[in-house]
Amino acid sequence: MILIVVEHANGKVSKSTWEMVTAARELGREAPITALVLGSAIASIAAEIATAVDQVLVADLPALAQYDPELWSAAVAQIATEGEASLLLIGGSRSGREYSPRVAIKLDAPLLEDVISLKANGDTLTAQHYTYLARVTETIEATGPIVVATIKPGIFNPATPRAESPAEQFDVDLNLPAPRVQVTGKTAERSSRVSLAEAEIVVSGGRGVGSAEGFTQYVEALADQLGAAVGATRAIVDAGWRPYSEQVGQTGKTVQPKLYIAIGISGAVQHLSGMNKSKIIVAINRDAEAPIFKIADYGIVGDVPQLVPAILAELKK
What we know:
The protein is an alpha/beta fold. The protein has helices at 15-26, 43-49, 69-82, 94-107, 212-226, 234-238, 269-272, 292-295, 304-316; strands at residues 2-5, 8-9, 12-13, 33-39, 55-60, 87-91, 111-115, 117-121, 124-131, 136-143, 147-151, 168-171, 201-205, 229-232, 259-263, 280-285, 298-301. The chain has 2 domains: 2-171, 3-Layer(aba) Sandwich (Rossmann fold), CATH 3.40.50; 201-316, Rossmann fold.
């Protein structure tokens, strides 16, 4: 079977999980696609993902209420072994990148990381991922009774539910180790905006906005008007104008919204690799030769302080 570890948050299946379902379907293997849901009070999660896979395994335990890399890796390795999985897919989130190597070691399996393409040729899996700041696409192969792969978020199109009846669900028993880490407190970034990874519209800013105040005045204002998420280039984040959680690019988040608006972004390769699969790209930049215009569907050449306020004024009408 192909085993997918379901990522979820706030009672919903994360977008990255639907992308993993697409990756599994595109392999064309006859093996059933099975979803593994870990956590506590996760009935709604299991029911949601059951509309897209062949089988759902549910581990609903109080011990799994909080993410713990040791518990997650033990649980995933156990289920993969018992189910004789041939391929294990884990989301390339921060937590997925943390516990996936532990799983690979427990299973004595090869690990393919940050996969952007995955193909099967008999018992061999061929994957691609970016390297050298996304200037090079590296092709790697893995062969074995089981292969572990992390899927880079925002690369595959999210899967849609299937027409047939929801998959059958099965509760599983786990032999979990005693936890060695205790979570004593938790803080979450508070934002009224939609998550960058889940957004259908993203407004991003680069050095062309002029300053941290300019970013707020132009990028944030337009995002608020459109109900969009806010993104930033690496240069903006490195300058301390915006938090790393908003960085779009090879070393940040990969996004694939319906509309991506790039304000004052020249279009460095590092940034383009994180947003070039957006459905529609609109670029605003005073440099008519900026690389961003080569991939933009619509380009506006002009000064940000003049153009963005004019756009905002029209939207407010």
